[in-house]
Write a structure and sequence with these properties.
By secondary structure, the chain is mostly helical. The chain has six helices and three strands. The chain is 34% helix and 7% strand. A three-stranded parallel sheet has the order 1-2-3. Helix 4 links the parallel strand 1 and strand 2. The longest helix is centred in the first third of the chain and has 18 residues. The relative contact order is 0.15.
Length: 177
Amino acid sequence: MGTESLPTIESAIPSALLQFHQLDQLRMLARANSLWPLTFGLACCAIEMLSSGCARFDLSRFGAEVFRPSPRQSDVMIVAGTINKKMLPAVKILYDQMPEPKWVIAMGNCAISGGPFAYPGQYNVVEGADTFLPVDVYIPGCPPRPEALIEGLLELEEKITGNRRWPRVKPETMVKG
């Protein structure tokens, strides 16, 4: 038995497939770095969502500053606030009008679980957006701060591309003051 060389995995895959894979990675990176959220707020969490686009928090440095007024121009639905049963069909229609690929972020305790309005025998509040939408990222809080929304968008970027662009901040490294 000689020292014949075994074929590598790269030689077994046609070069055209490798090029398509690299193109697909580039496409996902471009998508993750240019998320267009839908201007859509249901309750008090919408104020925090809109303030994250202002100069202090500057959502534009993450590529998500363009809040679109139409679902046909957006690819991220941020469900910010309480979903009433009367509003549920409208939310579903807006989601259905968004082009593929599309993602959903549930922002706030009310969007995640109904919040303080969900109690036994309740008649009006939907107990979470994930009961009728495929939620990709959950952002807890009442209401969550704009920094939490930025972290949620970074989580969504990580879900799209498979890696994280910005390192996570560990609580022990934060400056107290």
